[in-house]
C-alpha cells in the first residue's frame, strides 16, 4: 500500500546551504528557525502546544532528494572511513529521506499563518515539515540508554575572529550563530586541508574561514 504525505509547514532558517548546517539538533542553540504552517491550519491546530518546552519536528531532507540513498553510509562521527547501516545512523541519504529533530519551542504566533519559533535547529531553509509533536519527558527521556558510536558529544573547534574579518557588522545573535556553527566543524569528515578556505552562507552573510588542527579562524564576513 502506498501513502502520500503532504507537508504541513515550511522552515525559514538561517542555514541557506547544506554546508554548515548543524549535524544534530541542539548543538547550535543560537540557530533559531520559524516554522510557518500552511494556510490550512489555524490557531486551533496548536492549542495547548505552548505548554511544552520542546517539540519533535518530522521533515523531509529536501536538499538531497536527487542524491538517492544507500544501505551503507559513512558517519562523520567515525571519521568518514567506517561504514554503518543507514538505519544505524542519522544520515539524510535514507530510503524516504525523512528526518526527525527535537527543537526548543521558544514561542508561537497564532496569526495567519501560524508560526512556531524554535531554537537549536539543524534545518535547511525551506525544509518541508510533515508533522509536529510535543516532547513528553517522562516517556521519551532515557539518559542511561546506550548511544552506540555517538555516545558522547563530538569535540569542538576553538573559533577565533580575525581582526580584519569585519565581525563588527554582526549582531551578538548573528555572531553566536556563526561561531556555534563553525565550532561543530562542518567539513566532510575525511577532509583536512589546512590551507583551504571554506565558504558558508548563513543568515545574511557569506562567511570565509580556515581550520588548522583544533582551531578555526574566521577570515571574512561579507553581506550577501
Distinctive features:
224 residues; mainly beta; 2 helices; 12 strands; 7% helix; globular
Q: Would you give an account of this structure?
A:
By secondary structure, the protein is mainly beta. It is 7% helix and 31% strand. It has two helices and twelve strands; from the N terminus they run ββββββββαβαβββ. It has helices spanning 137-140, 172-182, and strands spanning 9-12, 33-37, 54-60, 72-73, 84-85, 98-109, 115-119, 128-134, 158-161, 198-202, 205-212, 215-223. The strands form three sheets. Strands 1-2-7-6-3-8 form a six-stranded antiparallel β-barrel. Strands 9-12-11-10 form a four-stranded mixed sheet, covered by helices on one side. A two-stranded antiparallel ribbon has the order 4-5. A hairpin with a 5-residue loop joins strand 6 (98-109) and strand 7 (115-119). The chain is globular, with a radius of gyration of 18 Å. The mean pLDDT is 94. One of its GO terms (molecular function) is methyltransferase activity. This is Methyltransferase, YaeB/AF_0241 family. One of its GO terms (biological process) is methylation.
Amino acid at each position: 500500500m502506498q501513502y502520500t504525505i503532504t507537508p504541513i509547514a515550511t522552515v525559514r532558517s538561517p542555514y541557506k546551504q547544506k554546508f554548515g548546517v548543524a549535524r544534530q539538533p541542539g548543538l547550535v542553540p543560537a540557530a533559531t528557525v520559524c516554522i510557518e504552517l500552511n494556510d490550512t491550519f489555524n490557531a486551533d491546530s496548536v492549542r495547548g502546544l505552548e505548554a511544552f518546552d520542546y517539540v519533535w519536528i518530522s521533515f523531509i531532507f529536501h536538499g538531497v532528494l536527487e542524491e538517492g540513498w544507500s544501505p551503507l553510509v559513512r558517519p562523520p562521527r567515525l571519521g568518514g572511513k567506517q561504514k554503518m547501516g543507514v538505519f544505524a545512523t542519522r544520515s539524510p541519504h535514507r530510503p524516504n529521506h525523512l528526518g526527525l529533530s527535537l527543537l526548543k519551542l521558544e514561542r508561537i504566533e497564532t496569526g495567519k499563518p501560524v508560526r512556531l519559533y524554535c531554537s537549536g535547529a539543524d534545518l535547511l531553509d525551506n525544509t518541508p515539515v510533515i508533522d509536529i509533536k510535543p516532547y513528553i519527558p517522562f516517556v521519551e527521556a532515557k539518559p542511561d540508554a546506550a548511544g552506540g558510536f555517538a555516545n558522547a558529544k563530538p569535540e569542538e573547534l576553538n573559533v577565533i575572529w580575525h581582526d580584519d574579518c569585519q565581525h563588527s557588522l554582526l549582531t551578538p545573535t548573528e555572531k553566536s550563530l556563526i561561531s556555534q556553527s563553525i565550532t561543530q566543524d562542518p567539513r566532510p569528515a575525511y577532509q583536512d586541508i589546512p590551507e583551504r578556505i571554506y565558504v558558508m552562507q548563513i543568515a545574511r552573510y557569506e562567511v570565509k574561514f580556515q581550520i588548522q588542527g583544533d582551531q578555526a579562524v574566521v577570515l571574512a564576513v561579507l553581506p550577501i
